[in-house]
Amino acid sequence: MKEWIQLSNGTLTAEISPEGAQLMSLCAADGVEYLWQRDPAYWSGCAPVLFPIVGALRDGKTRINGNWYTMKQHGLARHRVFQADKQSKSRVVFTLKADEQSKQEYPFEFVLRVEYSLAENVLSTVFTVENAGDVSMPYAIGGHPAFNVPLLPGERFEDYEVRFEKKETADCPRIAEGGLIDVFHVLKHFEHMDILPLRHELFAEDALVFENLSSRKVRLLSRVSDRGVEMDFSQFPMLGIWSARNRGPFVALEPWAGCATRTDEGDEFTEKHAMRTLNPGESESLGFSVKIR
């Protein structure tokens, strides 16, 4: 396996693995590690790239152009090795292109680029998807960075909260068996509120999935130390917030363009909720940023 690539600007140091183009570390100058460090007792990932699906398919299958395809949760990109290029001290671009193996799961000529860059105390991530084929290409994409909660010794999970940019009134659909989004059973988490106090019980049934939020930024902060992160997800229509059901000491903030199969839809890939489409030769870029404090 290739070595991780390190970016640094004196304020932040990021390390990224070519396998999945996954962020593996995000460390402040004082040595505090912000990114979850993959303890398999809770979750062995930390920040996978979700493409060309976000979440799960019903029974792990979908139909594309009349044929059935099998794809694992969150898609194929996180299991593939990317090519790293356009690298400098504070920026790198990873590229993954379709091949015969990828077409067994997703029969399209795609090019996926993942760019990471540092500026002061901000890490920016940009996904660029290109349709290099001659037919329309449906896809979904998202990020999944998880952050240590707590960050500092002596703090507790319950000392942290998620602060939304604006007051929200929002429902979250239940996550059903198999990871599907159950739109027929929703839970109200906000009634004109902008603060979600953290407790492990929030994630007893998996992720909280928000759509149509007024907020375009969200903070994950300690009430004790005021340390944490701020995510700008303004280019993404959905936001997932997740932690492991077995009291995982982390919280993932997940900007999504697309989501798991919903209980009110079938298995046609092009008809999945929030699916995006590129015509032949087109490309699209979606980015988010994480500011540490």
From TrEMBL:
Residues in the signal sequence: none
Matching InterPro entries: Aldose_1/G6P_1-epimerase, Gal_mutarotase_sf_dom, GH-type_carb-bd, LacX
GO MF annotation: an example: isomerase activity
Gene Ontology BP, a term: carbohydrate metabolic process
Pfam families, alphabetized: Aldose_epim
Classification via PANTHER family: APOSPORY-ASSOCIATED PROTEIN C-RELATED (PTHR11122), GLUCOSE-6-PHOSPHATE 1-EPIMERASE (PTHR11122:SF13)
Protein name from the UniProt record: Aldose 1-epimerase family protein
Organism field: Hydrogeniiclostridium mannosilyticum
